[in-house]
């Protein structure tokens, strides 16, 4: 549902001098800020106005339909010089015919806002879709890589599609390796089919690896019926009836526009991340993720498929002590473990034993991989132990297995053994039917709260 609210401009009855014009512009800015920051949903995340921002405002890329830099709430908060379009057929990233990107950018600005003299965020418009709102995987990937080149701190992806793209996942992985936090909408289908056994229907980019997927709630914190569910949902934020400046406002149209959905919720989360970065620029993407998830107001039952760890609480997030550094590891997927050469190998060629330790984390880092070299006929005994009170599983994948994908079809093609008993210790036994580098996966299972347990995995090879 889209509702549009218009505020007519004041009539001018006499010539306006420069000083008077400046005062009127400031007055209009103050009125816009008052309207935007008085919305009830801001109380849901326990928002308070930012004080004066003394640090350089964090640069946030909005990959969307473009951004109108003169829209209410966005004046002096848009990087117009480096805006770029990757939309099919070309386009103007500073002209948003569809209006979606301007609303998203406006929400981010409202949550991250400081005074006009020191805005709490700088928006980089990266247009990946035209007037219809449709885009392509290549446009998204190109937009992400451009954002990386501009050294943004956060990328907002308020989009939804049903097809997984290797190009998009590769670009997201590059962004994560560059230290960028990628935030995406969980989707607006209301389905709960992603990660369910035997079902592979997910919505992207929210379901991609290393993406902070955001579900949508109402002002009371209840998940919206249309907000997509799944284990990939990390947190939730208000997403119903969110008002921001309209792209048509600068051209004489309605000054404000109200929209609903997980696109808006993702923008709220991005604004919260920018607010944290403005206050503490040295925070890493992994630290911001953990802060937002650890301080969210969740249910007593822990993790929620609709809301992740709960609804973002900005006041608690700003007050939380920065967590220990825990950057994403290359061994978070099979191809990455192979690329690590010696560091990713648990049992090297010609050896019979190996041991390594690591850390897993609910939602953000559920699995780690190591390479175990086996010859045909050799037997493998692998054991993993994790901190008490946690549950760990072991899986062994064929040589050449690509990046993990959910679903029975992928498992039938590549999985050769698994050990999935409950408990903090797991043992897997396997006899090789072919030579090669097998992938041994250690997976955190059954976590119903935010945990970061350490594990130790050992592997013994015998004839």
Structural description of this entry:
The chain is an alpha/beta fold and 463 residues long. The protein has 10 helices and 19 strands. It has helices spanning 18-36, 41-44, 100-112, 137-149, 166-177, 262-279, 285-295, 314-319, 334-339, 408-414, and strands at 3-5, 59-64, 84-85, 122-127, 154-157, 181-185, 212-217, 233-238, 242-245, 256-259, 345-347, 353-359, 367-374, 379-386, 391-397, 415-419, 425-431, 436-445, 454-462. The strands form 4 sheets. The chain has a 7-stranded parallel sheet with strand order 3-4-2-5-6-7-8, sandwiched between helices.
Helix and strand arrangement:
Layout: E1 3-5, H1 18-36, H2 41-44, E2 59-64, E3 84-85, H3 100-112, E4 122-127, H4 137-149, E5 154-157, H5 166-177, E6 181-185, E7 212-217, E8 233-238, E9 242-245, E10 256-259, H6 262-279, H7 285-295, H8 314-319, H9 334-339, E11 345-347, E12 353-359, E13 367-374, E14 379-386, E15 391-397, H10 408-414, E16 415-419, E17 425-431, E18 436-445, E19 454-462
Parallel strand pairs: 2-4, 2-5, 3-4, 5-6, 6-7, 7-8, 11-13
Antiparallel strand pairs: 1-10, 9-10, 12-19, 13-18, 14-17, 14-19, 15-16, 15-18
Helix pairs in contact: 3-6, 4-5
């Amino acid at each position: 549902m889209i509702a549009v609210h218009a505020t007519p401009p004041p009539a001018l009855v006499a010539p306006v001098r420069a000083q008077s014009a400046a005062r009127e512009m400031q007055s209009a800015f103050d009125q816009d800020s008052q309207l935007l920051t008085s919305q009830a949903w801001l109380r849901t995340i326990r928002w308070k106005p930012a004080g004066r921002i003394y640090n350089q405002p964090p640069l946030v890329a909005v990959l969307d339909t473009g951004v109108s830099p003169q829209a209410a709430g966005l004046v002096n908060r848009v990087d117009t010089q480096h805006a770029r379009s990757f939309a099919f057929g070309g386009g103007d990233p500073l002209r948003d015919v569809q209006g979606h990107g301007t609303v998203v950018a406006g929400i981010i600005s409202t949550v991250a806002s400081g005074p006009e003299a020191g805005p709490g965020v700088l928006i980089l418009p990266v247009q990946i879709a035209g007037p219809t709102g449709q885009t392509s995987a290549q446009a998204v990937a190109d937009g992400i890589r451009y954002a990386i080149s501009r050294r943004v701190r956060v990328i907002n992806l308020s989009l939804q599609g049903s097809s997984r793209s290797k190009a998009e996942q590769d670009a997201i992985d590059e962004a994560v390796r560059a230290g960028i936090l990628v935030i995406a909408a969980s989707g607006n289908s209301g389905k709960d089919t992603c990660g369910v056994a035997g079902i592979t229907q997910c919505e992207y980019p929210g379901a991609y690896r290393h993406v902070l997927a955001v579900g949508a709630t109402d002002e009371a914190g209840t998940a919206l019926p249309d907000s997509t569910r799944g284990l990939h949902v990390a947190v939730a934020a208000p997403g119903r009836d969110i008002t921001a400046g309209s792209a048509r406002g600068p051209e004489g149209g309605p000054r404000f526009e109200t929209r609903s959905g997980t696109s808006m919720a993702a923008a709220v989360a991005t604004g919260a991340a920018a607010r944290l970065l403005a206050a503490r620029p040295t925070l890493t993407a992994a630290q911001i993720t953990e802060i937002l998830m650890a301080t969210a107001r969740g249910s007593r039952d822990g993790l929620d498929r609709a809301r992740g760890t709960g609804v973002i609480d900005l006041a608690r997030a700003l007050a939380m002590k920065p967590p220990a550094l825990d950057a994403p590891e290359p061994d978070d997927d099979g191809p990455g473990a192979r690329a690590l050469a010696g560091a990713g190998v648990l049992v090297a060629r010609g050896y019979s034993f190996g041991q390594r330790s690591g850390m897993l984390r609910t939602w953000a880092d559920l699995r780690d991989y190591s390479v175990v070299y086996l010859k045909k006929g050799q037997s493998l005994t692998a054991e993993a132990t994790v901190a008490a009170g946690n549950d760990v599983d072991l899986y062994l994948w064929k040589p050449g297995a690509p990046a993990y994908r959910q679903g029975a079809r992928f498992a039938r093609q590549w999985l050769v053994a698994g050990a999935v008993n409950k408990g903090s210790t797991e043992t897997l036994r396997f006899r090789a039917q072919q030579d090669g580098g097998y992938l041994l996966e250690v997976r955190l299972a059954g976590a119903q709260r935010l945990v970061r347990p350490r594990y130790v995995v050992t592997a013994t090879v015998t004839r």
